[in-house]
Amino acid sequence: MAEYRAGKAGINAEAQARIHSKYNDEIAQETLEWIRKLTGEPANTSGDADNLYEVLKDGTLLCKLVNELQPGSVKKINQTTMAFKCMENINAFLEAVKKLGVPAQETFQTIDLWERQNLYSVVVCLQSLGRKAGNFGKPSIGPKEADKNVRDFSEEQLKAGQNVISLQYGTNKGQQSGISFGNRRQM
């Protein structure tokens, strides 16, 4: 697991430090409190990275959370601490989250949580899921998602828009002669 791995060096260490600098304890704490509101777990909702990792690393709480939002999303939750079974839980959570409408760019890879490589992306995924929770009649977190605002234009309105000249086309007003860019060619 992560504790047996050699430390990163050079540019990899800098990249990892940048990833870790994005992590925010308050947002993580808000996320864990939301999870506790829905599932009754965890007892400790401290937002530090160590606690978040300990609470979520086996994936069972994540699977319970997604089953709370939509029952039956994850059919089998592995209760063992074997590495592949835990990663299977995390992967099942990720598949269920995508089906619930979380965009793929807001999810994380299993290894980000299991090897503690990018806990920031885990929190981003949970926050995105929290915004979708309102669609399932559950309490949500974060900003409210925008509603669709479909507009129908008539043919007459669409044709009227074709007669307007956009400012991006420029203008033919004013004097354009004498404009030169850079130096002139020296002979």
TrEMBL record:
Query: What InterPro entries has UniProt attached to this entry?
Result: Calponin-like, Calponin_repeat, CH_dom, CH_dom_sf, SM22_calponin
Q: Which domain of life is it from?
A: Eukaryota
Domain Calponin-homology (CH): residue ranges: 25-134
Gene Ontology molecular-function annotations: actin filament binding
Gene Ontology CC entries for this record: actin cytoskeleton
GO biological process: what's one of them? actin filament organization
Q: Which family does it belong to?
A: Belongs to the calponin family.
Name of the featured protein: Calponin-homology (CH) domain-containing protein
Write down the species: Bombyx mori (Silk moth)
